[in-house]
């Protein structure tokens, strides 16, 4: 008999195995929910799927009586704008600082130790400072996300630049490149796909900072909404919202991965040999 | 005309002399191969010639002019690995040196007629090393031998008077290596540059060079002395670069 470690599932069984944990989770929830609802039809903790669908219909399709907006749509839009702005700001900072610190020893000496220390500041602990100095509007939330992901991206890219073979940098100089030409033509283009990787890795943290900031001070947003309806124990809204956030996070990750493969075929080929551009 | 002179060149790290003192004059158009045991200082010597390391004492002159102590286009280099840029296609890799020289000083970009002429030059060089069909492929899509051909074309695009080779064919299988020897000899005849090649492979060193140097630390050297040239074998006459051997 073949050893377990050498046995690969066929296509159909692989698909079934992939679906299995998802199906199990839905099934477990469904059973727990019906048991509780059978005991107490007013139970709010584990609402039935139909209740959640109704709630979502209210949130996503019918306009809100007070604002006239569809809440789920408005919340999603507000959250995504904050997330994208914050991550973009952090990524720009990270790219700039990381590439300079990685390529130029002088910049490295000045920035590297500072960055290592600065990255240790828990971003949420400075959220009050941001609220006090920047106000409780959009800017403080965007800056929180940028501060949360920027130093991480900068340090990651600095390490990636240092990983470039010395041979490449020497070679560039023998072809007539000085520091700037090397930066623009050799280092920066090779760092862009790695920047996308770093962004993907920091998206989880970015969502965390976004929801934390929204929970504390906001008037719309996915994080704001779940913390708002928590007061009414509205699990029928919270659960679908969490699902929605998860789906968005997964989709952004997927989109960034696709974008990287599209824009930088040479990188995809390096990382996943065998795949053809 | 590119005579290479080493005048009492020494390299020491923390008071420990690794290489030298080395006195050496290479005639213009010479193909000098350097062999020696691992760790004997071959790579250090090559780094000195490349300008990656600064000699502790002595001077390196190319055509009577001291070489800069950082890498510049007067010296081309082909390594065993990492010689070409992974984010550029074969054609872009060859064009890079030309663009950096002729383009604007910040981005090294060229436009219009210059751009077209550089394109044509790069394609001609690719054709010369047998990579015409692979012009639009990335290095990762090329075999080891093809990558080294590309590296040669890329280095030669800048027409360096001195070409340095650091075990360039060490990772190739024997068949590929023989083909590369032929190509290198042909390119050397055409371009007439002075070549310094570090290799592990004795038959290669004898077969290609006009002069072979053995770098070694003899046992009777004082503890603080660096490796030096223990054998200097003339093998054949250097080629004379003729006027009609100019490349496009």
How does this structure look, described?
- By secondary structure, chain A is mainly α.
- In chain A, 77% of the residues lie in helices and 0% in strands.
- With 248 residues, chain B is an alpha/beta fold.
- Helix content of chain B is 31%, strand content 25%.
- Chain B has helices at 42-50, 90-102, 112-128, 144-157, 174-191, 202-208, and strands at residues 4-13, 16-26, 31-35, 57-62, 65-66, 75-78, 162-166, 194-198, 211-216, 228-234.
- In chain B, the strands form two sheets. In chain B, strands 6-7-8-3-9-10 form a six-stranded mixed beta sheet, sandwiched between helices.
- In chain B, strand 7 (162-166), helix 5 (174-191) and strand 8 form a beta-alpha-beta unit.
- Residues 241-248 of chain B have low confidence and may be disordered.
- Classes of the chains: A mainly alpha (277), B alpha/beta (248).
What topology emerges from the helices and strands here?
The complex is a heterodimer of chains A (277) and B (248).
Chain A: H1 11-39, H2 49-60, H3 71-103, H4 105-118, H5 127-134, H6 138-163, H7 166-174, H8 179-216, H9 222-229, H10 235-263, H11 265-271
Chain B: E1 4-13, E2 16-26, E3 31-35, H1 42-50, E4 57-62, E5 65-66, E6 75-78, H2 90-102, H3 112-128, H4 144-157, E7 162-166, H5 174-191, E8 194-198, H6 202-208, E9 211-216, E10 228-234
Parallel strand pairs in B: 3-8, 3-9, 6-7, 7-8
Antiparallel strand pairs in B: 1-2, 1-4, 4-5, 9-10
Helix pairs in contact in B: 2-3, 2-4, 3-4, 4-5
- For this structure, the quaternary state is heterodimer
**Main sheet of chain B: which strands, in order across?**
6-7-8-3-9-10
What is the string of helix and strand elements of chain B?
EEEHEEEHHHEHEHEE
Number of helices of chain A: 11
Overall shape of chain A: globular
| Radius of gyration of chain B (Å) | 18 Å
| SSE ordering of chain A | HHHHHHHHHHH
Query: Percent of residues of chain B in helical segments?
Result: 25-40%
Q: Largest chain-chain contact?
A: A-B, 26 and 34 residues
For the record, give the distance between the C-alpha atoms at the N and C termini of chain B, rounded to a whole number.
Answer: 19 Å
How many strands, which pairing sense, and closed or not: the largest β-sheet of chain B?
6 strands, mixed
Task: Provide the structure class of chain B.
Answer: alpha/beta
User: What is the general shape of chain B?
Assistant: globular
Q: Could you give the count of β-strands of chain A?
A: 0
Structural class of chain A: mainly alpha
Kindly provide the radius of gyration of chain A, computed on alpha-carbon positions and rounded to a whole number of angstroms.
Answer: 24 Å
